[in-house]
């Protein structure tokens, strides 16, 4: 049985018992849980052990008045939104409080039910947004992940920084990157950190929609607009009103449709297919593509004016092969998610498995990694993922060519605690050379280094190996 969420808690602060009772009764009638305080001093005591979702406070009170209450809340970093009630003649003071002390808004006495209800709804949404933002910021600083995005490498940290900078704005964002790098997850993170977080997040894959249906999907249609249109239907822009619309694979949108999309972005109004009236929409648009924007512009596959309209901010996601330092965190996060999805109890991966994951080039990026781990988790069910749980492409054949002279041959690598890093590096390089059948250019690409650097490392490792042998014979 699913339990209902607890009602939001509102603190009413007023020194007049009749006003306090009247406000409490009104707010309880909106469906909220209400607590009361007769002045700012009592309010601060009640705000100590447990927070509330919003405060409704009078200005003029004995001991600690509304001014001092808000000032103390501001000084101790309490961001609970406060609605200030003001009598006739003190509106200027109330406006000053909103500006200087961070009050959420003000209302003249006596408070009208409709106005107070609307302000409380908005104040609670604001508080929830602040809590979610704080949670995500804490995730990022403590654990190296932001929502569904995971990693501590410099490249993904730069992406996190960009998301935090642009999320509070309402400007369009263009997200680029190879297929499977997590473009929709970035869009979702931007939405969650924005002021639209309580609104809808609607994702549309432009490449998956037939050309004759994409206009209807985006803008909707009226009954009889085309064959099969048996009723009125709202489009994605209307569904995303007050929230965020994510247009994935924007580079695959038909050129004629791009002109119509541009008009909607500029006017914030849509007209359904077969409709005569325009409908105002309040939507933030995020777009993504795995195509080269420069090439799309040169080939006239993307309108230049639409590109500049969407590319107010640009986030380019690195491929997984360029951020392999993030693999341990990604593997841990994905296994945790897949355990919950498939009711499994996988605890970790064998070092040999991790070595093979590290040496793989990941053309399908994080999506491919998730698919590989999903198969492994389902097969293993519990305990440790071993090489036998991986897809056949990760099974290194026994007849693989020998590594260059001076490098010890192994079919697996070991990563015991305390083992010298040079030995681990040597085994990684050997394993990669075996997988690529001694193709050094391919091995260098997988290892994230130049061919020249690989040759240099091979020479150093061979020399170190010879020195060790000479010392052993000398002893």
Protein architecture, described:
The protein is 46% helix and 15% strand. With 475 residues, it is an alpha/beta fold. The protein has 4 domains: 9-131, Rossmann fold (3-Layer(aba) Sandwich); 147-318, Rossmann fold (3-Layer(aba) Sandwich), CATH 3.40.50.300; 322-394, Helicase, Ruva Protein, domain 3 (Orthogonal Bundle); 421-474, Homeodomain-like (Arc Repressor Mutant, subunit A). The strands form 6 sheets. It has a 5-stranded parallel β-sheet with strand order 2-1-3-4-5, sandwiched between helices. Strands 9-12-15-8-16 form a 5-stranded parallel β-sheet. Strand 13 and strand 14 (279-280) form a beta hairpin. Helix 2 packs parallel to helix 3 (66-75) and helix 13 crosses helix 15. It is globular and about 85 Å long. The relative contact order is 0.07. The model is unreliable at 140-147 and 397-411 (pLDDT under 50).
Q: Characteristics of this structure?
A:
475 residues, alpha/beta, Rossmann fold, Helicase, Ruva Protein, domain 3, five-stranded parallel β-sheet, 46% helix, globular
Summarize the structure.
The protein has 18 helices and 18 strands. By secondary structure, it is of the alpha/beta class.
Topology summary:
Blueprint lengths: L8 E5 L3 H13 L3 E5 L2 H8 L6 E5 L7 H10 L6 E5 L4 H10 L4 E4 L4 H31 L1 E2 L2 E2 L3 H13 L6 E4 L6 H10 L8 E5 L8 H6 E2 L11 E2 L1 H4 L4 E5 L6 H13 L1 E2 L8 E2 L3 E6 L3 H6 L5 H7 L2 E4 L10 H16 L2 E5 L1 H9 L5 H16 L1 E4 L35 H15 L4 H8 L3 H24 L1
Parallel strand pairs: 1-2, 1-3, 3-4, 4-5, 8-15, 8-16, 9-12, 12-15, 17-18
Antiparallel strand pairs: 6-7, 10-11, 13-14
Helix pairs in contact: 2-3, 13-15, 16-17, 17-18
């Amino acid at each position: 049985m699913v339990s209902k969420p607890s009602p939001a808690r509102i603190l009413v602060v007023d020194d007049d018992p009749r006003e306090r009772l009247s406000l409490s009764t009104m707010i309880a009638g909106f469906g909220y849980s209400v607590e009361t305080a007769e002045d700012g001093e009592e309010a601060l005591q009640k705000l100590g052990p447990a927070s509330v979702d919003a405060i409704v406070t009078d200005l003029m009170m004995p001991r600690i008045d509304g001014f001092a209450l808000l000032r103390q809340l501001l000084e101790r970093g309490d961001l609970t939104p406060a609605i200030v009630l003001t009598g006739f003649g003190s509106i200027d003071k109330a406006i000053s409080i909103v500006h200087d002390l961070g009050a959420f808004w003000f209302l003249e006495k006596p408070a009208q039910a409709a106005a107070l209800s609307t302000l409380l709804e908005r104040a609670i949404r604001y508080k929830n947004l602040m809590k979610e933002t704080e949670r995500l910021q804490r995730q990022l600083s403590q654990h190296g992940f932001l929502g569904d995005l995971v990693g501590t490498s410099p490249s993904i940290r730069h992406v996190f920084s960009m998301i935090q900078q642009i999320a509070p704005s309402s400007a369009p964002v263009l997200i680029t990157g190879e297929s499977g790098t997590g473009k929709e997850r970035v869009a979702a993170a931007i939405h969650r950190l924005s002021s639209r977080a309580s609104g809808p997040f609607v994702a549309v894959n432009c490449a998956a929609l037939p050309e004759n249906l994409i206009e209807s999907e985006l803008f909707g249609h009226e009954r009889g607009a085309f064959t099969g249109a048996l009723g009125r239907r709202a489009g994605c822009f209307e569904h995303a009103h007050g929230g965020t619309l994510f247009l994935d694979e924007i580079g695959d949108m038909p050129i004629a449709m791009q002109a119509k999309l541009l008009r909607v972005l500029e006017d914030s109004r849509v007209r359904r297919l077969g409709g005569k009236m325009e409908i105002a929409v309040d939507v933030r648009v995020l777009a993504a593509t795995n195509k080269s924007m420069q090439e799309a512009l040169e080939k006239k596959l993307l309108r230049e004016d639409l590109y500049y309209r969407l590319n107010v901010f640009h986030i380019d996601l690195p491929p997984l092969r360029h951020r392999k330092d993030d693999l341990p965190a990604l593997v841990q996060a994905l296994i945790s998610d897949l355990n919950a999805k498939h009711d499994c109890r996988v605890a970790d991966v064998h070092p040999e498995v991790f070595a093979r994951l590290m040496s793989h080039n990941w053309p399908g990026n994080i999506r491919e990694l998730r698919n590989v781990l999903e198969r492994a988790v389902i097969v293993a069910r519990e305990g440790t993922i071993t090489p036998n749980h991986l897809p056949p492409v990760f099974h290194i054949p026994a007849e693989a060519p020998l590594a260059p002279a001076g490098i010890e041959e192994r079919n697996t690598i070991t990563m015991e605690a305390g083992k010298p890093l040079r030995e681990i590096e040597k085994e990684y390089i050997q394993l990669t050379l075996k997988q690529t059948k001694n193709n050094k250019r391919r091995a260098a690409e997988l290892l994230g280094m130049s061919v020249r650097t690989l040759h240099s490392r091979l020479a150093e490792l061979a020399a170190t190996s010879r020195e060790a042998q000479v010392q052993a014979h000398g002893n």
